[in-house]
Design brief:
This protein is an all-alpha fold. It folds into two domains: about 300 residues, ABC transporter involved in vitamin B12 uptake, BtuC, CATH 1.10.3470.10; about 300 residues, ABC transporter involved in vitamin B12 uptake, BtuC (Orthogonal Bundle). The chain has a two-stranded antiparallel sheet with strand order 1-4. Strands 2-3 form a two-stranded antiparallel ribbon. The longest helix is centred in the first third of the chain and has 36 residues. It is globular.
């Protein structure tokens, strides 16, 4: 029994014929466009070698210097762009087809993050591997990440689950890699720049070695193309047609990871090409039914990917000077394009997963609340004492007592003068992030909302990095102001775009992830363009570190925290009403729009000052409010203090672990919270997978999924 796909016929063969003719014309046009971009790419560079010199070099009539530039640098760069773009485009198309989800890609499935971590581990160990062996390491890391993300999100599920699984896994893996970069700066020298993705090459050696790997992946995908088309009908229908569903899905994921690994090995992670290129093909498939088939759409996705990579490289070199273009990786440009695409997709999503209040919970008694608050307070005191006493130099309570009285020795005073501000900063930043997440979740009635996922922390980080890299001697209040400005801009974009339809879960998360990706790309851009010493400082700060903090650094976040607690408790009734639904507050005389704006402003201020004080720390604003509601119910008079205590304790524990686990070396608190928070969040996804729900949301619609081609069974 053979399985083939056909376009739905509406006449006596004319639609199919016109579809094939149109598909051939579109393919030819893409080939021509790729050729034009490739020729343009060859003519661009830092050397004064124009089109005429390039032509002479290609025809063997140029002098040795010009020929060396063209043959050894520009042609390999152009060829790498073709190979990397084609591989990523086809990898994204295959992963989207097998998962039946338009957001599946090497980026959203954490394939690049897995490859990055695997290569980082090899680099740290000092192992020197040839290019093919490095590709194998990247392949194993990317394959493991893709398999994990797909198993947690499920096949054919909605966009939110896939994005959350991939984003959480990517954050955890990237945090471990960033920890390696900070702990082993000499061994990993240049690995950060490589992670931004650049198609620049030194000769054809890498292209020649990776081309057969890409060819194997493409041939394998073409061979299983018809089986993948059958999977579009659903697993049961595909089994009825004799398709081995599990083996087909595993084969496609392996081949997609192989293509991604080849691209990563050759040029580093080139962001979002695997997401955008298949989207272009889907737009064409709406008019040309031939592109609904895997065997027809796969080469077109490869051509679209090559257009994106070469077009980004050409645009970069056309917009900035040649010297700056060399420093700016191509992956930064494609990441910005992909972020805009993700935001555009979010606006087009038909968001039926509208924001709603959390599920009903039991209401604990007043005595239970008091016991919980007392227990958490005692735990916070214990964590604080441990934070002051533990570190590369362990102290006793007597040392702290003498230090407080001013009678401690010089060595003890030095240790406590640097350690106490760090502990205080960790406590305040954790409490501020927890309160910020509580306010945002209540106002949007979306349990997935938190400063990190929604891009607010990314905006604050971008504002602070801009100031840190341009004004190294910036004062504490200046950094806090820059962080707040960045967070405010990001929040206006995210909440403004997501407000259509009432902060629906799908739209809010997708817009937030898109804005976060854009801020990450811009941060990478400024780090790459600035002095390497600023890059190290920015990386340390972005990892969520309290290193070098002084008491004045804690003043902005302490002021914002006091304001936030006062507002949340004083307006607790309004906060409870706003978190219920859209109609109840208006019936009781409350103006929901004004209340929402006020609470969101306070939440943004809390998140920005926390980022300015302690860097980027994720998951705290998500986990603490969830845990607080589970412990004491939904009334914010109880949720607010419990969430604040939980957030402060979590970040302080992470800071203590980062200072003691590998002392005297240190890891940032943000890295430790990611290591702690990622498994917990992935556990929530795994626990709710069988019920077809997303944590705290309930049943989730499928979202935009790939439309199946019409199948004809031939005996």
């Amino acid at each position: 029994m053979a399985v083939t796909t056909t376009a739905p016929a509406t006449g006596a063969g004319t639609p199919t014929t016109s579809s094939r003719t149109g598909a051939a014309a579109v393919t030819a046009s893409l080939v021509l466009l790729v050729a034009v971009l490739a020729v343009l790419d060859i003519t661009q560079g830092t050397a004064a070698v124009g089109p005429s010199e390039v032509w002479k070099a290609l025809t063997g009539r140029a002098d040795a210097g010009d020929a060396s530039v063209v043959i050894a640098s520009r042609l390999p760069r152009m060829t790498a762009g073709l190979l990397v773009g084609g591989a990523l485009g086809m990898a994204g198309a295959s992963l989207q087809a097998v998962s039946r989800n338009v957001l599946a890609a090497p980026d959203t499935l954490a394939v690049n993050a897995g490859s990055y971590l695997a290569l980082g581990v090899i680099t740290v160990t000092g192992t020197s591997l040839p290019l093919l062996a490095s590709s194998g390491v990247a392949f194993l890391g990317g394959l493991g990440a893709a398999a994990t993300a797909l198993s947690l999100s499920g096949v054919g599920t909605g966009t939110v689950r896939l994005v959350l699984a991939g984003s959480a896994l990517m954050l955890g893996l990237s945090s471990v890699t960033e920890g390696l970069l900070l702990l082993f700066p000499e061994e990993t020298n240049g690995l950060y720049q490589w992670n931004q993705g650049s198609i620049s090459q030194n000769g054809f050696g890498g292209v020649v070695q990776m081309a057969p790997v890409v060819l194997v992946g493409v041939i394998g995908l073409l061979l299983v193309g018809r089986r993948v088309d059958a999977l579009a009908l659903g697993d049961e229908a595909a089994r009825g047609l004799g398709v081995p569903v599990r083996r087909t899905r595993v084969a496609v994921v392996v081949l997609g990871a192989l293509l991604s690994a080849a691209a990563v090995t050759l040029a580093g992670p080139i962001g979002y090409v695997g997401l955008c290129a298949p989207a272009m093909v889907r737009l064409l498939a709406r008019r040309l039914r031939s592109f609904t088939r895997m065997r027809a759409s796969l080469p077109v996705a490869g051509l679209a990917g090559a257009c994106l990579v070469l077009g980004s490289d050409d645009a970069l070199r056309a917009l900035v000077s040649s010297d700056q273009a060399v420093a700016v990786p191509t992956g930064v440009v494609t990441s910005l394009v992909g972020a805009l695409f993700l935001i555009g997709l979010a606006l087009r999503v038909r968001d039926s997963a509208t924001a709603r209040s959390p599920e009903r919970m039991r209401i604990p008694s007043r005595a239970m609340f008091l016991v919980t608050a007392a227990t958490l307070t005692a735990a916070l005191v214990g964590v604080t004492i441990a934070g002051v006493l533990l570190g590369d130099t362990k102290l006793l309570l007597g040392d702290v007592f003498h230090w407080a009285q001013g009678t401690a020795g010089q060595s003890v005073s030095f240790v406590l003068d640097t350690r106490v501000p760090r502990v205080l900063t960790a406590l305040l930043a954790g409490a501020a992030l927890a309160l910020s997440g509580t306010l945002v979740q209540a106002v949007t009635r979306n349990p997935l909302a938190e400063p990190g996922i929604l891009g607010v922390s990314g905006g604050a980080a971008l504002g602070a990095v801009l100031l840190v890299t341009t004004v190294p001697a910036a004062a504490t209040w200046g950094i806090a102001g820059a962080a707040f400005a960045g967070a405010a801009v990001a929040s206006v974009v995210v909440f403004g775009l997501a407000a259509r339809g009432g902060f629906g879960s799908n739209r809010l998360v997708l817009v937030g992830v898109g804005v976060s990706a854009a801020t990450t790309a811009l941060i990478s851009l400024f780090i790459v363009l600035t002095d390497p010493f600023n890059a190290t400082k920015a990386l340390t700060w972005l990892s969520g570190s309290t290193y070098g903090r002084e008491l004045p650094d804690a003043l902005p976040v302490s002021g914002a925290l006091v304001l936030g607690i006062v507002v949340a408790l004083a307006r607790r009734t309004e906060l409870d009403l706003v978190s219920l639904d859209e109609d109840t507050p208006g019936l009781l005389g409350l103006r929901p729009a004004s209340a929402r704006l006020g609470f969101l402003s306070v939440a943004v201020l809390l998140g920005a000052t926390a980022v300015a004080a302690a860097g980027t720390i994720g998951f705290v604003g998500l986990i603490a409010p969830h845990a607080a509601r589970a412990l004491v119910g939904r009334r914010h008079i109880r949720v607010v203090p419990v969430a604040v205590l939980l957030g402060a304790s979590l970040v302080c524990v992470a800071d203590v672990m980062g200072r003691t686990v590998i002392a005297p070396a240190q890891l940032g608190a943000g890295l430790m919270t990611a290591v702690i928070g990622t498994p917990y969040f992935l556990y929530l996804l795994l626990r709710t997978r069988r019920q077809g729900t997303t944590p705290g949301i309930g049943p989730e619609p499928g979202g935009p999924v790939l439309r199946p081609a019409r199948l004809v069974v031939r005996q």
